[in-house]
Amino acid sequence: MSWKALLVDDEWLVRRELRHLVNWEEIGYTLVGEAANGLAAAEMIKEERPDLVVLDIQMPGMDGVELARHIAAHEPQIRMLVISSHDQFDYVKNTLKSGASDYLLKHELNPDNLRLVLGSIRKELEQDRAREREEERTETERKDSYSPLLRQFVRELVLGYRPAVQQWMSAYPYTGSRSALLVIQIAHFFRLSQGKTDTERSQFIQSVLDICQQSIGTMQHGCAVYIDHGRFVILIGCAGVRSESAIYQELSHLEGAVSRSLHLLLNVKTACQLAGVCTSAGLLPEMYARVTEKLRYMSGMEVNAPAEMTSNSDAHEQLFSIQQEKQLLTAVIGAAEDEIRMILDEVLKPVLGRSANDARLRLLLCELMSLARKVAVKIGFQQLDVLEARLEQLALCEDTAESGEQLKRVFTYLSQALGEKPSYSPYVQQAIQFIRHHYHEEIGLDRTAKQLNLSPAYLSRLFKSETGVGMVEYINRIRVEAGMKLLQSGEISVKEVYEKVGFNNYSYFFRVFKEITGQTPQQAAKREQDS
Question: Which CATH code for domain 147-311?
Answer without folding.
Answer: 3.30.70.270
